[in-house]
Structure to design on (1030 residues):
C-alpha cells in the first residue's frame, strides 16, 4: 500500500543524507563538549583543543557522578539537583499544557463577550521579556509569601502563551463535521473535548510536552532569585555554580561532563515522546 | 489518554515526594531556634565553596546564629536580586558587592548601614586601620569609618612567559618596569617570533583606566575621584591617557599588542602561549598555574617614567561586604552580623582565604601572619600584588574612586576604546566620547538619588 | 478568526479560561504594569527616592542616535535568525517525515540542541569560535580567514546569529515534523496517483496544510529573535565589540541591570513591547488570511 515516491530508495537516501548534514551541524557543539569532557583542563587551555576524545573521560565522569553525590558546601548532591529539575520540568510542562489547552478550547469553540480580549490578554504575555518584569514579579511573589517555596518556583511560570497559540491554531483546523457529529450524538462540549479533540491533538501535545519540559528543566534566573535554600537548586543552577566567576579557575572538563549528563533526561523525554508522533492518526480516527 | 492520566498521577506523586524531601532537608534547621543571617555572594567554584564553608565553620563555633551563605548569580544578577529584595522589604543581612558597584551602594542614602557602625552598635572592637590602605580608601569615609568591609581583594599585575622571554633574547629575571621597556620587549618578541603576540590585557577598563591612573596618581574625576558626592565629573581626557590608548592602537598591526576581549577572556591567549605577556588581576594566577605549560614570572604593572613620582600604588579590585538597612532588623540580628564579619576578618580565616583563592590578605595582620609562616618564600611571586598595594608610594589618587553607574561607565570605556582599536576613531576621540557619555551617566545618577 | 460551528454554553468558556487568566493576571499583568510604571519615573536603584517624570525617559530614549542604530541592528539580526532557523528546519522535517526507519533516533539527535540551557549553549559556541581557544576559530585562521569576533563587528554578529539560530532550528524542526505528521497520507497518495511530482505535492498540499504551523513558528520565532536571544548574546559577546551585537533587548538589560537606569530601561521595554505587538498584529492581519485552516 505504501508506494508513494518518497518511499523509493533514492528518496530514502536523500532523506538520510539531509538528516546527516543536519545532525553534523547541530551536533558539532555537543561533540566538542563531549571531547572537552574527556580531556584534562590544561589540554583544553592549550589551543587548539584536540578534536579526538582524550583519556580523562572515566576520571572526569567519575568525579562528577561519585564526588558529586556528596555535594559540597556550595551545592547539594548532583542527584538531588537532577531530581529538583525533574519535578520542576514535569510540573511546569503538565501545568502549562493543561491550563493552555482548556483556554485554547474555550477561545475556539465558543462565542462569548470578551473572547478575543481574553485571547490577546494571554497572548500579550509573550510581548514583554522576562528580564524586564522580573523585579516586580519578585515583589509579588514575596508579598504572597511564596519565596523559597515550590509553588513560588512553578506557579509564575505556568501561564503559557505559546501553547495556547499553537493549540488555537490546531483547533481552528478541525473540521466542522466533527463538531456537528458530536452535537448530533448529544455530546456536550466537555465530552467532545475529552473523547474527540484530545486524541486528535496527540502529536501537538507530544511536541508541546517536549518543549515545555525543556523549558522547565532549564530554568535558571527564576530559581536563582526565588530560592535561598540550596536543596531546591536545579541542575542548571548547579552547572552555573561550577563555572568560576571573574578570574577564578573553572574545571571546564567537569562542567562539560555535567552538562552532558544533564542532557540525558530531556533526551529521554524526546525519545519517549516519539511514539506519539504517529502517522495516519487523523485518517484512522475518522 | 492513558499517557496524560499516568503523567498526572506521577506528577502528583512526585510533588508529594518532593515536599517530603524538602521538608526533611530543612528539618535540622528548624530543630534549633537559631537566628538566621542571610549572606548573598557572587562567587562560584573553589572560591564559593570556601566562603560557604566559612559560613558553616561559623555556625559550628556558636549556638546563637545560623549563617546561610548563598550564591545568587553573578554580581549584576545578584545585585538585581538584592534590589528586588530590598524593595520588597526583605534584603539579605550581608551582601557581597563588587568594586564597581560601590558607588551605587553608597550614594543611595539609607540603603546601607556603614560597617563601622554595625560593629560599634554590637559592641565589638573594630579597627579600620588594620585593613590595607588602598582598601580603606576605597571603601571608607574621610573620618576613617568604613562603609563596607573589604573581603576579597585583588590588584593588577603583569604576568609574563619566561620561556618566551628566553626565546626572544630577553632576560627572564628582568621583566619590563616601564612602558617604554614593555613596548620594546613586545616588539622584540614579535621580531624574533618568540610568540604570536607581545602582550594582551584582561579587564580593559579596570586595568587601562582605573589601575593605570592610580599607578600614576592621576585624577579620574572631580570631587576627590567622586568621593565628595554625586556631582563629580570625569577628567580622563588628558595627554597621558591618550598616549596609553594610542600606544595600544599603534602596537596592533605587528601584534605587539593584541586585544583579547573585555573581561578575562584574554587570559586564554596567555595561557595557551599565544601572547607572551598579560596584564591581569592577581586572582588569575591559579588558572595560569594550573593550565599553563611554561615558566611563569610575575611583576608589578609598568608605568611611564616621565610622570613625576611614578610608580605609585595600584588600586584594588574584587568585592567587599555590605550590610543592608532594613526596618525590621532586630538588635539580635545586627549583633549576629557583626559577629560573622568579625569572624571573617580574623587572621585565621583571612590567611586561609588568601592562600587558597589567590585573593590578597585584606588586613596587615593577616599579611604579616602569612609572611611569618613563610608563605611568600615558599611561593615566589605571590607577594608581588600585595606589595604593589602596600609598599609602593601612596598618593592622593591611589585611594580608589566612587562613582555611581560605574559598571555602565566601564562598558562605555570598552565600547569607545574598542571602536578606536577597530580603527573607527582616534584615541583622543575615544576618550572625548567616553567622557561625554560617562558624564551623562553621572548626571542621570545624580538626578536619581536626589 | 472564529469557527463556524461552536458550542452554545455561556459560563463554561469562562471557567475554562479562568486558570490561565488568574495566573496571567497575578504573575504577569500586575508585575508588568508596575514595570511599565517605572518608565514614567526616575528613581535610585533601591527605590528610596522616586520621582514622576512624565515622558522624560521616552524623550531621552528617542533622541538618542544610538537607539536607532540598535533598532536597525535588531531588525537585521532578527530577520537573519528567523530565516536561518526556519528554512533548514523545514528541510530537515521534510526529510525526517519521509523516513521509513530510524526516525526516532534522528529526531532525538536533532532535538538535543534545544535541551541545552542558553547560557551553556553560549559557552559551547565560545569553545568553538573564540579566537583564543576555539577549534573552529583555529581552523578558520589556518585557512587564512581573519576571524576575530573580539574586534570585528561583523564576525561577532555572524557568531551570535549562528548561535541563536542553532537552538531555534531544533524547535522549529519539532513543530514542523508534528505538523507534517498530521497531514493525512491519503491526500498525498491520491495526488501521487494523479501524477503530481514531489514539488507539486509540496506546493499544493503540504505547504498549505502546514501553514497554520508555519504561521505559529513565524510569530514565535520573531518573538524569540527579539527577546529570548538575550541569553546567547550575553554569554557569547556581551553586546560587543563596541556596540556591534547589542540588540534592543540587550540594551534593555544593560541599561536596567548594569547601568541601573530603571526608568530608561522600562521606557525602552515599553517601546520594544509596542514594536513586537505591532509586528505581531501585522502578521495576524495580513498573513493569517493566507493560512489554510481547513
Amino acid at each position: 500500500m505504501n508506494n508513494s515516491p518518497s518511499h523509493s530508495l533514492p528518496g530514502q537516501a536523500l532523506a538520510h543524507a539531509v538528516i546527516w548534514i543536519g545532525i553534523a551541524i547541530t551536533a558539532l557543539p555537543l561533540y566538542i563538549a563531549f571531547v572537552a569532557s574527556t580531556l584534562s583542563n590544561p589540554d583544553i587551555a592549550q589551543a587548539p583543543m584536540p578534536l579526538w576524545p582524550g583519556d580523562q573521560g572515566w576520571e572526569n565522569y567519575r568525579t562528577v557522578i561519585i564526588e558529586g553525590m556528596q555535594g559540597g558546601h556550595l551545592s547539594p548532591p548532583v542527584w538531588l539537583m537532577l531530581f529538583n529539575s525533574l519535578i520542576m520540568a514535569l510540573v511546569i510542562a503538565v501545568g502549562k499544557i493543561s491550563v493552555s489547552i482548556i483556554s485554547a478550547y474555550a477561545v475556539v469553540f465558543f462565542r462569548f463577550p470578551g473572547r478575543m480580549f481574553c485571547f490577546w490578554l494571554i497572548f500579550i504575555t509573550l510581548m514583554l521579556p522576562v528580564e524586564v518584569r522580573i523585579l516586580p514579579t519578585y515583589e509579588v511573589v514575596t508579598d504572597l509569601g511564596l519565596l523559597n517555596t515550590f509553588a513560588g518556583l512553578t506557579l509564575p511560570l505556568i501561564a503559557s502563551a505559546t501553547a495556547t497559540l499553537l493549540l488555537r491554531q490546531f483547533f481552528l483546523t478541525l473540521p466542522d463535521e466533527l463538531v456537528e457529529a458530536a452535537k448530533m450524538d448529544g455530546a456536550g462540549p466537555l465530552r467532545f473535548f475529552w473523547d474527540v479533540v484530545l486524541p486528535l491533538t496527540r502529536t501537538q501535545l507530544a511536541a508541546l510536552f517536549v518543549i515545555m519540559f525543556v523549558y522547565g528543566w532549564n530554568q535558571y534566573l527564576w530559581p536563582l532569585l526565588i530560592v535561598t535554600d540550596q536543596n531546591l537548586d536545579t541542575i542548571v543552577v548547579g552547572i552555573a555554580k561550577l563555572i568560576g566567576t571573574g578570574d577564578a579557575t573553572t574545571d571546564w572538563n567537569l562542567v562539560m561532563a555535567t552538562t552532558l549528563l544533564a542532557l540525558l533526561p530531556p533526551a529521554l523525554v524526546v525519545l519517549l515522546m516519539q511514539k506519539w508522533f504517529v502517522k495516519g492518526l487523523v485518517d484512522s480516527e475518522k | 489518554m492513558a499517557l496524560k492520566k499516568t503523567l498526572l498521577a506521577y506528577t502528583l506523586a512526585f510533588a508529594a515526594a518532593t515536599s517530603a524531601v524538602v521538608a526533611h532537608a530543612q528539618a535540622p534547621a528548624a530543630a534549633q531556634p537559631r537566628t538566621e543571617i542571610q549572606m548573598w555572594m557572587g562567587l562560584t567554584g573553589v572560591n564559593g565553596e570556601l566562603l560557604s564553608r566559612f559560613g558553616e565553620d561559623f555556625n559550628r563555633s556558636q549556638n546563637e546564629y545560623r549563617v546561610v551563605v548563598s550564591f545568587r548569580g553573578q554580581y549584576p544578577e545578584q545585585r538585581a536580586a538584592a534590589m528586588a529584595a530590598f524593595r520588597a522589604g526583605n534584603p539579605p543581612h550581608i551582601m557581597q558587592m563588587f568594586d564597581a558597584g560601590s558607588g551605587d551602594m553608597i550614594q543611595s542614602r539609607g540603603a546601607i548601614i556603614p560597617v563601622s557602625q554595625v560593629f560599634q552598635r554590637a559592641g565589638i572592637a573594630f579597627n579600620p586601620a588594620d585593613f590595607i590602605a588602598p582598601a580603606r580608601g576605597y571603601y571608607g569615609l574621610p573620618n576613617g569609618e568604613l562603609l563596607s568591609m573589604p573581603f576579597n581583594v585583588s590588584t593588577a599585575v603583569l604576568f609574563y612567559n619566561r620561556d618566551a622571554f628566553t626565546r626572544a633574547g630577553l632576560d627572564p629575571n628582568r621583566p619590563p618596569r616601564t612602558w617604554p621597556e614593555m613596548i620594546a620587549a613586545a616588539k622584540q618578541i614579535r621580531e624574533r617570533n618568540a610568540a604570536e603576540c607581545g602582550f594582551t590585557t584582561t579587564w580593559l577598563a579596570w586595568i587601562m583606566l582605573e589601575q593605570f591612573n592610580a599607578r600614576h596618581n592621576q585624577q579620574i574625576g572631580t570631587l576627590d575621584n567622586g568621593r565628595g558626592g554625586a556631582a563629580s565629573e570625569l577628567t580622563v581626557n588628558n595627554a597621558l591617557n591618550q598616549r596609553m590608548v594610542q600606544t595600544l592602537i599603534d602596537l596592533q598591526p605587528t601584534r605587539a599588542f593584541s586585544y583579547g576581549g573585555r573581561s578575562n577572556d584574554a587570559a586564554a591567549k596567555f595561557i595557551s602561549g599565544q601572547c607572551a605577556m598579560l596584564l591581569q588581576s592577581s586572582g588569575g594566577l591559579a588558572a595560569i598555574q594550573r593550565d599553563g605549560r611554561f615558566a611563569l614570572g610575575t611583576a608589578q604593572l609598568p608605568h611611564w617614567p616621565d610622570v613625576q613620582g611614578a610608580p605609585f600604588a595600584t588600586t584594588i579590585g574584587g568585592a567587599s561586604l555590605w550590610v543592608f538597612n532594613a526596618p525590621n532588623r532586630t538588635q539580635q540580628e545586627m549583633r549576629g552580623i557583626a559577629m560573622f564579619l568579625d569572624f571573617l576578618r580574623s587572621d585565621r580565616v583571612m590567611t586561609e582565604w588568601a592562600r587558597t583563592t589567590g585573593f590578597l590578605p585584606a588586613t596587615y595582620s593577616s599579611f604579616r601572619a602569612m609572611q611569618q609562616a613563610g608563605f611568600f618564600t615558599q611561593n615566589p611571586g605571590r607577594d608581588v600584588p600585595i606589595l604593589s598595594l602596600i609598599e609602593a608610594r601612596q598618593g592622593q589618587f591611589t585611594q580608589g574612586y566612587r562613582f555611581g553607574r560605574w559598571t555602565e561607565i566601564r562598558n562605555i570605556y570598552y565600547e569607545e576604546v574598542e571602536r578606536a582599536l577597530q580603527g573607527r576613531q582616534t584615541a583622543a576621540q575615544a576618550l572625548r566620547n567616553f567622557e561625554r557619555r560617562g558624564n551623562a551617566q553621572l548626571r542621570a545618577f545624580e538626578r536619581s538619588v536626589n | 478568526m472564529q469557527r463556524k460551528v461552536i458550542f452554545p454554553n455561556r459560563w463554561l468558556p469562562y471557567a475554562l479560561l479562568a486558570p490561565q487568566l488568574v495566573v496571567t493576571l497575578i504573575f504577569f499583568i500586575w508585575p508588568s504594569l508596575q514595570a511599565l510604571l517605572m518608565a514614567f519615573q526616575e528613581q535610585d536603584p533601591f527605590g528610596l527616592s522616586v520621582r514622576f517624570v512624565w515622558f522624560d525617559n521616552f524623550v531621552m530614549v528617542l533622541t538618542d542616535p544610538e537607539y536607532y542604530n540598535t533598532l536597525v541592528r535588531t531588525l537585521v539580526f532578527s530577520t537573519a535568525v528567523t530565516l536561518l532557523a526556519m528554512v533548514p528546519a523545514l528541510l530537515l522535517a521534510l526529510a525526517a517525515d519521509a523516513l521509513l526507519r530510524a526516525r526516532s533516533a534522528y529526531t532525538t539527535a536533532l532535538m538535543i540542541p534545544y535541551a541545552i540551557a542558553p547560557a551553556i549553549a553560549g559557552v559551547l559556541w565560545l569553545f568553538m569560535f573564540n579566537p583564543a581557544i576555539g577549534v573552529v576559530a583555529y581552523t578558520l585562521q589556518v585557512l587564512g580567514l581573519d576571524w576575530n569576533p573580539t574586534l570585528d563587528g561583523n564576525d561577532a554578529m555572524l557568531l551570535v546569529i549562528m548561535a541563536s539560530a542553532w537552538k531555534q532550528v531544533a524547535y522549529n524542526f519539532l513543530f514542523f515534523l508534528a505538523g507534517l505528521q498530521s497531514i493525512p497520507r491519503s491526500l498525498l497518495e491520491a495526488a501521487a496517483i494523479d501524477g503530481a511530482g514531489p514539488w507539486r505535492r509540496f506546493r499544493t498540499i503540504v505547504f498549505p496544510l502546514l501553514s497554520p504551523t508555519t504561521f505559529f513558528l513565524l510569530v514565535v520565532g520573531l518573538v524569540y529573535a527579539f527577546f529570548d536571544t538575550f541569553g546567547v548574546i550575553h554569554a557569547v559577546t556581551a553586546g560587543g565589540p563596541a556596540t556591534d551585537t547589542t540588540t534592543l533587548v540587550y540594551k534593555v538589560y544593560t541599561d536596567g541591570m548594569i547601568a541601573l537606569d530603571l526608568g530608561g530601561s522600562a521606557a525602552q521595554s515599553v517601546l520594544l513591547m509596542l514594536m513586537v505587538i505591532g509586528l505581531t498584529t501585522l502578521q495576524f492581519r495580513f498573513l493569517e488570511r493566507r493560512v489554510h485552516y481547513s
